[in-house]
Design goal:
The protein contains 15 helices and 17 strands. By secondary structure, it is of the alpha+beta class. α11 runs parallel beside α12 and α12 packs antiparallel against α15.
Length: 572
């Protein structure tokens, strides 16, 4: 813009200046010609008064007048020509034989009384201005001035004009450039500030130094920039909040257009579809799952109705639900992808739990109800009644154990920490458990032993520590064989206490290991019920270990025995 202003302003000024100067130069040149012609006309008028002398001796008069003019610094040539074109006298040459009848100025003088012409003289080979007048006698009186002087003066005039125009142009360019630069500086600052704002530098402002229209424009621009900055900061804040909210969601959020180009997605969406390189601007491609999701989103775009469907995820047994809707513009679809695997598993566990609890309660209740009905149906002898009383007592104890284990498991699962936890000696807990179960071990003909490092101290509830160890040792005794052994070892390994309960029992098949710690899961259900098991013992062991920061694992070989390992952090 600045260059255009300078150029246009300079052209306008130069054209106006040149036009004025050229007009003046032409006027001066015309004046020069008039003065030049007037000198010749004056000389001829003076000379025409001497017509008698001219007729008596034309050559002498021409020579005399030419000499006088030359002495006065006027190189004027005087010629006296007869009516038939013969040169009778000339101030520059004594004898001229060439006929001048056809000279333009001579012809015009004969016809009109006066004639003029400017040309190269064939006689003296110089450019002359000729003027001729006709006297009463018919003699032609001609005067000529060389044009070299006026040509030099006019050339000098044009040189001066050209120099003046060039100097004027330079001055105009300089002055115009300075003026335009001063006038456009605020506009340039506005342009730079607008460019910065366009690049995202919304803090850019313009200094307001003028109080004219440009100053008003700069003030308005600054107000607009301030409003834009505030709006962008608010939008950025809202965008960050939205992105933070979406990234914190457990569900994936994905948006695409009709060309399958990703418009938005959060990190959770990448994880669920299993495509880490999926990004905004990319295409919906890379897996069969992603293609299915894209198909659902296109269905939502085309129909305008929400689409919900359950799909299999990338991982084994993973279940996803996809809820796709069309956005208001009609060219974008939004999908919320949720991992419902855990929910499905919990539903399955709930179903199994209800089924197992119902079954576990039904068995002793059936036995109790049957015994009561038999006792009521007829008189029984003392021995029969004693048998049924024993059955009632045994089944009631089984119910009590089941309810106690269920309550204990529920309390453990719902507890985030145990306020009753304190420093506990693993050796002391194992000793008390072994002493309490020694009679059971004798009854099952199983040898029970233990060896625990006295330094094995954990932060635990004493009652729950004994319960955990007791469940493992009791299982090891019940599922052992006659003449078998059960050993309990406690040792220190780095910053952990490791408790191993090893038996030489029937062992566990590999296909049961993965589900061994689930509620009510039994490897041999019939044997478990025979020995009074509830199916919750190992589940309680696992949840207790996790509650106090530990882990539990098992290694087993069928028909050779099993080793249960509980790892707990050392109390500090």
């Amino acid at each position: 813009m600045k260059k255009k202003l300078i150029l246009l302003n300079s052209i306008a000024v130069v054209l106006a200046f040149s036009a004025a100067f050229l007009f003046s130069a032409f006027q001066v040149q015309q004046r020069y010609h008039e003065m030049f012609s007037q000198r010749v006309s004056t000389a001829l008028s003076v000379l025409s008064a001497e017509e008698d002398k001219i007729l008596q001796d034309p050559q002498e008069i021409a020579q005399e007048v030419g000499k006088q003019l030359s002495e006065n610094g006027d190189e004027m040539r005087i010629s006296i020509i007869s009516s038939d074109g013969q040169v009778l006298g000339d101030s520059t040459q004594k004898e001229i034989l060439e006929n001048h009848a056809n000279r333009p100025e001579v012809k015009a003088a004969r016809e009109f009384g006066r004639g003029t012409d400017t040309r190269m003289s064939a006689t003296v080979h110089q450019s002359y201005y000729y003027e001729a007048i006709s006297l009463q006698s018919g003699v032609i009186l001609r005067a000529a001035l060389p044009t070299i002087q006026i040509d030099q003066e006019i050339l000098g005039l044009w040189k001066t004009a050209a120099f003046s125009i060039a100097l004027g142009v330079l001055l105009v360019l300089f002055i115009t450039g300075a003026m335009v630069s001063h006038a456009t500086r605020p506009l340039q600052e506005l342009t730079k500030a607008a460019g910065k704002i366009a690049k995202g530098e919304y803090s850019s402002r313009v200094k307001v130094t003028e109080k004219d229209e440009v100053g008003d424009l700069a003030s308005s621009f600054n107000k607009m920039a301030e409003s834009t900055q505030q709006a962008m900061e608010a939008q950025r804040h809202n965008q960050n909040q939205l992105e933070g909210l979406l990234d914190s969601m457990d569900s994936g959020v994905l948006a695409i257009d009709r060309e399958d180009k990703v418009q938005f997605l959060n990190e959770r969406a990448r994880e669920l579809v299993g495509i880490p390189h999926l990004a905004v601007g990319g295409q919906m491609e890379g897996s069969l799952l992603l293609a299915h999701i894209g198909h659902l989103m296109h269905r939502a775009m085309e129909s305008g109705e929400a689409v919900r469907q359950e799909l299999s995820g990338q991982k084994e047994e993973q279940k996803l639900t996809v809820y796709a809707v069309r956005v208001d513009d009609g060219h974008t679809a939004l999908a919320v992808i949720s991992d419902v695997t855990r929910m499905k598993q919990l539903e399955q566990l709930r179903t199994e739990f209800v089924s197992n609890v119902t079954h576990e309660l039904k068995t002793p209740l059936t036995a109790i109800r049957g015994s009561i009905e038999l006792l009521k149906s007829a008189d029984r002898d003392e021995k029969t009644r004693a048998y049924f009383y024993d059955v009632l007592d045994m089944e009631t104890q089984r119910l009590q154990h089941l309810i106690d284990d269920m309550l204990a498991l529920s309390q453990i699962e719902n507890a985030k920490e145990d306020p009753s936890a304190k420093m506990c000696s693993v050796e002391q807990a194992v000793k008390e458990v072994v002493e309490r179960l020694s009679e059971t071990a004798k009854q099952n003909e199983v040898q029970l032993s233990y060896h625990v490092d006295p330094k094995a101290i954990v932060r635990f509830s004493p009652t729950r520590l004994q319960q955990m160890i007791s469940n493992l040792v009791e299982n090891a005794i019940k599922y052992n064989r006659k003449g078998g052994t059960v050993s309990v070892d406690g040792l220190l390994r780095r910053n952990m206490v490791v408790i191993n309960v090893k038996d030489t029992g029937i062992g566990i098949a590999p296909e049961h290991i993965g589900r061994l710690f689930e509620r009510f899961y039994r490897v041999d259900a019939s044997r478990s019920r025979e020995i009074g098991g509830t199916g919750l013992g190992l589940s309680i062991v696992k949840h207790l270990a996790v509650l106090y920061g530990g882990t539990v694992s098992v290694e087993s070989v069928p028909e050779k025995g099993s080793t249960f390992t509980v790892t707990l952090p050392i109390a500090k």
